[in-house]
């Protein structure tokens, strides 16, 4: 079942020439006939190697500005011919078609061209036709043809040529065929997503992956699909775990909401502390104060360069990951004293505006919740209106609430998270949890504001809040009994603002 195939003829037509030189020299050394066209042909000839021109084989020149070069029966017949079929052999001989045993082809860089923000015409011209057809044809006929479909495979190809003297076995050909279809399917998915505006379907393709130590728990395998280097520079520490990545994702999304100097501490995807202050050190101290117990082993993030003074303070606690846009040199020296501590520099890149998750036997897909509640969009529904300080806190609380697991209640005072009740099955339970936590850490809730991620179905929540000294509330509204909560607020000198936007996070 080894089914060795000696390479006699090779078709080489690539966009990327890096690393190709040693390969074509080896092909020439082994006496393999090389067929090529265009820029690849010139590259090989510049190596001092004789090349058979594809246009001589087809008797047609490259036409339409290079759009049509290899699309011809003399090329595809040589790739797709089944060596074991007499009928195929007779036709190959009749039309004088060489059988290609090796196809080295890569694709125009469509994805890279799209990201370069060039003109639509330049993007369209980077949709490969001949290349993708050659790759698919060679992969389809892997029983007889060896296909190399991107330059990252040149090194392995060279090793195979050297070790097997220009022959390939069936197992290897099939493996490379699988790689080729991976490349072609990714390419087509990228093109479709570029064009698609209104067709409802789920197509995702990410070729970059990183195996993790384990998944959410040690008995689960875990893999990250994506390129973390596009997102961060890691300056120190061990590799990020599955749970680290979940917390890092939550941290990055949360901090993106804030423009003032802000520090946040996250644990299990929720903020256990966050504060905005004039200085980073004060932001850190007030963020930590909200819950120094939960901060142990957490993820820290700031939207400002991390300075020496703050680094000295945060170095006193144990945490897994810290993220900042930059670090003071001396601050970095201090943070690096713990070798396993992950230190990340967040790059300024745009994140996806959609998200998905697997459920049951399918996938849920949605737009990200990109709505940030601003007071200008809010509606004061009570007789008393919030003052300037309260407005600032309401906006702050709403941002934190949006990034906290539902059901949630958030308490904020002077742009500092005092406490939150997260992930509860009832809004009342979330409120009670937040109150209990605030009291445990000795916060005075008088003059604090309260935020809820969804409406109050009954006035019980505003009543409980009032009993704890909270007089200003922000919520989406939309309950058929909103009037009961409003009436309670009016009767108890409370202020209530409605946003009109729910922020569930399950």
Describe the structure.
The protein has a six-stranded mixed beta sheet, with helices on both faces. It folds into three domains: 5-195, Rossmann fold (3-Layer(aba) Sandwich); 223-346, Cytidine Deaminase, domain 2 (3-Layer(aba) Sandwich), CATH 3.40.140; 375-498, AICAR transformylase, duplication domain (Cytidine Deaminase, domain 2, 3-Layer(aba) Sandwich), CATH 3.40.140. With 506 residues, it is α/β, with parallel strands linked by helices. Helix content is 38%, strand content 19%. β16 and β17 form a beta hairpin. The radius of gyration is 31 Å and the shape is elongated.
Outline of the structure:
By secondary structure, the chain is α/β, with parallel strands linked by helices.
How is this fold's topology laid out?
Layout: E1 5-6, E2 9-13, H1 20-29, E3 33-36, H2 38-46, E4 52-53, H3 54-58, H4 73-80, H5 86-94, E5 102-105, H6 110-115, H7 120-125, H8 130-140, E6 146-148, H9 154-164, E7 167-168, H10 170-195, E8 209-211, E9 223-225, H11 228-231, E10 232-236, H12 242-255, E11 262-267, E12 270-276, H13 280-289, E13 298-302, H14 308-314, E14 319-324, H15 329-335, E15 342-346, E16 354-359, E17 362-367, E18 379-380, H16 388-402, E19 409-412, E20 417-421, H17 427-440, E21 449-452, H18 460-467, E22 472-475, H19 482-491, E23 495-498
Parallel strand pairs: 2-3, 2-5, 3-4, 5-6, 13-14, 14-15, 21-22, 22-23
Antiparallel strand pairs: 1-7, 8-9, 10-15, 11-12, 11-13, 16-17, 18-23, 19-20, 19-21
């Amino acid at each position: 079942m080894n089914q060795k195939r000696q390479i006699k003829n090779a078709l080489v037509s690539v966009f990327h020439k890096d690393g190709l030189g040693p390969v074509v020299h080896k092909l020439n050394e082994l006496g393999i006939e090389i067929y090529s066209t265009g820029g690849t042909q010139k590259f090989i000839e510049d190596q001092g190697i004789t090349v058979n021109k594809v246009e001589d084989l087809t008797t047609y020149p490259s036409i339409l500005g290079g759009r049509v070069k290899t699309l011809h029966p003399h090329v595809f017949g040589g790739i797709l011919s089944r060596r074991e079929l007499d009928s195929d052999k007779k036709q190959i001989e009749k039309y004088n078609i060489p059988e290609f045993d090796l196809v080295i082809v890569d694709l125009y860089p469509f994805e890279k061209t799209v990201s370069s923000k060039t003109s639509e015409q330049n993007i369209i011209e980077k949709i490969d036709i001949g290349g993708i057809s050659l790759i698919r044809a060679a992969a389809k006929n892997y029983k007889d043809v060896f296909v190399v479909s991107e330059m990252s495979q040149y090194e392995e190809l060279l090793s195979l040529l050297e070790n097997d003297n220009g022959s390939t076995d069936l197992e290897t050909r099939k493996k490379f065929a699988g790689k080729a279809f991976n490349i072609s399917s990714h390419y087509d998915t990228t093109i479709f997503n570029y064009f698609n505006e209104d067709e409802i379907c789920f197509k995702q393709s990410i070729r970059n992956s990183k195996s993790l130590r384990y998944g959410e728990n040690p008995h689960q395998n875990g893999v990250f699909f994506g390129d973390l280097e596009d997102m961060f520079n890691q300056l120190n520490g061990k590799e990020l775990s599955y749970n680290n990545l979940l917390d890092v994702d939550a941290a990055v999304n949360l901090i993106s909401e804030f423009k003032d100097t802000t520090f946040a501490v996250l644990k299990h995807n929720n903020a256990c502390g966050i504060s905005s202050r004039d200085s980073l050190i004060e932001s850190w101290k007030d963020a930590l104060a909200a819950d120094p117990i939960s901060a142990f082993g957490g993820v820290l993030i700031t939207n400002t360069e991390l300075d020496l003074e703050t680094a000295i303070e945060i170095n006193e606690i144990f945490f897994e990951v810290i993220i900042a846009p930059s670090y003071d040199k001396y601050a970095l020296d201090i943070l690096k004293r713990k070798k396993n501590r992950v230190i990340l520099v967040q790059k300024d890149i745009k994140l996806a505006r959609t998200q998905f998750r697997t459920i049951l036997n399918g996938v849920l897909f949605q737009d990200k919740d990109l709505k940030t509640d601003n007071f200008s969009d809010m509606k004061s529904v009570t007789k008393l209106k919030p003052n300037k300080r309260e407005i600032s806190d309401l906006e702050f609380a709403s941002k934190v609430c949006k990034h906290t697991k539902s059901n949630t209640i958030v308490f904020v005072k002077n742009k500092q998270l005092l406490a939150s009740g997260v992930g509860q099955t009832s809004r009342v339970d979330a409120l009670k949890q937040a109150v209990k936590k605030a009291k445990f850490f000795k916060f005075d809730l008088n003059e604090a504001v309260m935020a809820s991620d969804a409406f109050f179905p009954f006035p019980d929540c505003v009543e409980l809040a009032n009993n704890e000294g909270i007089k200003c509330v922000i919520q989406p509204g939309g309950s058929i009994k909103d009037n009961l909560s409003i009436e309670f607020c009016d009767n108890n000198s409370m202020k209530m603002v409605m946003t009109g936007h729910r922020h569930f996070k399950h």
